[in-house]
Amino acid sequence: MVTDFFATTVDDWDDPSGKLHAYLVPDSATRDRLCPALDRLADLPFLAPQPLDALHATVQRFGFSADELGAAGLAALERTAGEAAAGLAPVTLEFAGPTVTQDSVLVPAGPDTVWEALVASVRAAAGEALGREATHYAPPWGPHLTLAYATATGDDAQITGRLERDPAVTSALGTVTFSHIHWCAVHQNRAQGTYTFDTLFATPLGS
Predict the structure, then answer these.
(1) Could you tell me if 200 and 141 are in contact, meaning their C-beta atoms sit under 8 angstroms apart?
(2) What share of the chain is helix, strand, coil (3-state, %, to 5)?
(3) How far is CA 122 from CA 46, 85, 139, 201, in A?
(4) Neighbour tally for 26: CB within 10 Å
């Protein structure tokens, strides 16, 4: 069974300006490859597929709203993020196929030293620009793209059955390279069961 993801989320928010996050955002070709899986999940009543243009891998979540940062805070963050990312190469991750968890459908990738260096760089840049509170939240357990969140209790076998109708849907996504860190204002849309975002600025990797 899957259970409601939003029943156990911590520090929910409804700030219209959004909460600051650092994301890796897949390119359009990668998103297009995930369309068939999203389509398979579209009409299950206990599941909320995510908008195609909202797919992302979270690098770090922060407790600040975009409005709280202000122009000066964003400028400082953009400067420190650029300095920290200059020594990093673009990030290449090897993704598996869609995986059903207790409360969501994910496309996971294995963490490695490159991912760990990216997370450390993001946390250091935010800490320098925004202070110690910037590292209040622990990093995510590892890189992953979330295709859908459960919004109620449901039968995970229904999800698996939908996905397994087409072997191409369940096959590994494979190698995806990310050339930028997107610093985003993220909107939690609990009624729809989705997270959407606006990119505030993007930091090139290896610039």
Answers:
(1) no
(2) 35, 30, 30
(3) 34, 8, 10, 14
(4) 23
Kindly state the tokens that stand for 68.
């709280």
Count CB atoms within 10 A of the CB of residue 199: 12
Report the distance separating Cα 34 and Cα 161, nearest Å: 17
Tokens of 55: 């797919």
Q: Token match 């300006």: residue?
A: 17
Instruction: Give phi and psi for 137, each to the nearest 5.
Output: -90, 140
Reading the block at residue 114, the tokens are 């490159």
Q: Which two tokens stand for residue 82?
A: 């650029």
pLDDT tens for the 207 residues of the chain, in order: 999 999 999 899 989 999 999 999 999 999 999 999 999 999 999 999 999 999 999 999 999 998 999 999 999 999 999 999 998 999 999 999 999 999 999 999 988 899 999 999 999 999 999 998 899 999 999 999 999 999 999 999 999 999 999 888 999 999 999 999 999 999 999 999 999 999 999 999 986
Give the three-class secondary structure for 149: strand
The whole-angstrom separation of Cα 29 and Cα 43 is 24
Q: How far apart are CA 201 and CA 11, in angstroms?
A: 24
For residues 31 and 173, give the distance between their C-alpha atoms in angstroms, rounded to a whole number.
Answer: 10
